[in-house]
Specification:
single chain; alpha/beta; Metallo-beta-lactamase, Chain A; 7-stranded mixed sheet; 6-stranded mixed sheet; 4 helices
Length: about 240
């Protein structure tokens, strides 16, 4: 096994490797059976209720998980920290050494908190959190231009980091928003990411119980059919 990807709910994913689990932005949903002897790193990109739920730590404790590390964006209040769990607070544009021979690089979200680039022995994982080109109909032209500029700046930084650190300018897995609420602009962030970043597999997320948006994207952009995954199915990569 290299990496096993399990979709949990909304923006929540579990990535399993030989030695470790990486759980991203758990909000709610059922977790699969876990090996209690493995370490688990629990990432929360920011404080929004659809990206962080402290109860995940109680859930893991009840499942018998002994080796838990919480990787929490700085905007999450200490009042919401779990008890008896190792905590790594993170902010944007920093690099951290984590358990399981893991290196974390953070980006600055265009909404709140951070995005995660996780480098582990099995490959490179990117979880966007709420880093996206959040262009909205009804917002001012100035707002939308600034949003697009901020988003592209961060993706360009990611591209530069991949090249400068000899990561073959390649991501193995990326979890990216594809939000149908943005109407005609729903794919804007995804398309720029695909233009700038070489990636083997993308799992769309943050689609608010509307996975049909994935097929909508693939009908319009069939050239990405080998890259864009059907999120709500278990996958090995």
């Amino acid at each position: 096994m290299k990496m096993k990807i399990t979709y949990i709910y909304h923006s929540g994913f579990l990535v399993e490797t030989k030695e470790c689990y990486y759980l991203f932005d758990y909000y709610k949903g059922s977790l699969p059976s876990l090996d209690e002897n493995k370490q688990i790193l629990v990432f929360a990109s920011h404080s929004h209720r659809d990206h962080y739920n402290k109860e995940v730590f109680s859930l893991l404790k009840n499942m018998g998980m002994k080796h838990v590390t919480a990787v929490l964006a700085k905007d999450i209040s200490p009042k919401l920290y779990p008890d008896d769990v190792a905590i790594q607070k993170v902010t944007f544009h920093e690099t951290y050494e984590l358990p399981c021979n893991t290196i974390l690089r953070t980006l600055h979200s265009t909404d709140a908190g951070v995005a995660f680039l996780v480098q582990c022995p099995e490959g490179n994982i990117y979880h966007a959190g709420d880093l996206n080109d959040w262009v909205w109909e009804g917002e001012s032209e100035q707002y939308n231009k600034q949003m697009t500029g901020n988003y592209r700046h961060e993706i360009d930084l990611l591209n530069a980091y991949l090249q400068e650190n000899d990561i073959n300018n390649m991501l193995d897995v990326a979890f990216l928003p594809l939000d149908p609420r943005q109407e005609q602009d729903y794919a804007k962030g995804m398309l720029y990411f695909l233009k700038k970043i070489n990636v083997r597999h993308i799992y769309p997320m943050h689609y608010w119980n509307n996975p049909q948006v994935i097929n909508r994207f693939l009908r319009k952009y069939p050239e990405y059919s080998d890259i864009i995954m059907q999120t709500e199915s278990e996958n090995f990569v």
